[in-house]
Amino acid sequence: AAVVPLALLLALGTVQASLDTTMVRAARHQLTEGIVADAVVRAPAGLTTAEAAALGELDGVEAAVVTGAVPVEIKNQEVEDEPFSMGELEWEPAGLSVVPPDVAQGIDLGVTAGSLDDLARAGTVAVAADAVMGTVQRVGGSITVRDVGGTEQVLEIVAVFSRGLGFGPFFVGEATAASAASAASAASAAS
Fold first, then answer.
1. Is 13 helix (H, G, I), strand (E, B) or coil?
2. Which of 151, 90, 96 lies closest to 127, judged by CA?
3. Which of 4, 40, 124, 160 lies in the 20 to 30 Å Cα band around 134?
4. Alpha carbon 80 to chain centroid, angstroms
5. Element holding 121 (H helix, E strand)
6. DSSP-derived secondary structure for 57-112
7. Closest Cα partner for 97 from 80, 122, 72, 121?
């Protein structure tokens, strides 16, 4: 009688391990295919504006594409519509990857709809296709984000891309990141 539950556990473990390996391989493939730059510099503590400019001025460097990240929570629209939800799963932790207007010189996200050029406008976001899979969200739709200060902001979806496993699900331009940062500063100053 214990053989059947044991066999089921082994099968579940095997499927889970295979799925994890597959996801890691897919993410690695997307990352490798999407980095179009010849070199990548990692700076876990970040780069100053002067350091980024110095990288761009090195011999042989055509462009230095500097990215960053902003921690936020994303509102889960589907949970909000659930009749018995008490809001406990309404917000999911996430990060907005911040990219400059010339992002395409270093990264190819595999845009399938819309344009990353539209990220230059404040209040816009590019989303990974797998982040909106199973929803009605598409270019022209919106997502709601909440920054660490609790300020909510509705972002218009201006592009959908295919390499979300490798690069992350949400990209914003510098204008959107700046408006989120100033909203968070204003909220903390008011409290």
1. helix
2. 96
3. 124
4. 21
5. none
6. TSTT-S-----EEEEEEEE-HHHHT-TT--STTSEEEEEEEEE-TTGGGTB---EE
7. 72
Q: In this structure, what are the phi and psi dihedrals at residue 7, rounded to the nearest 5 degrees?
A: -65, -40
107: exposed, middle or buried (Cβ count in 10 Å: 0-12, 13-18, 19+): buried
**∠ CA(128), CA(88), CA(171), 5° rounding?**
20
* Distance from the Cα of residue 19 to its chain's centroid: 22
Predicted pLDDT of residue 14: 55
- Give the sign of the dihedral formed by CA 32, CA 94, CA 88, CA 159: negative
Residue 189 is predicted with a pLDDT of 47
Mean pLDDT of 20-34: 82
CB 159 within 8 A of CB 121: no
Tell me the whole-structure pTM to 2 decimals: 0.77
In terms of phi and psi (left: phi > 0; alpha: psi -120 to 50; beta: otherwise), the region of 74 is: beta
| Cross-strand bridge partners of residue 146 | 73, 152
Q: What's CA 39's distance to the chain center, in Å? A: 22
- Return the SS3 of 155: strand
CA 120 – CA 172 distance, rounded (Å): 8
DSSP state of 38: S
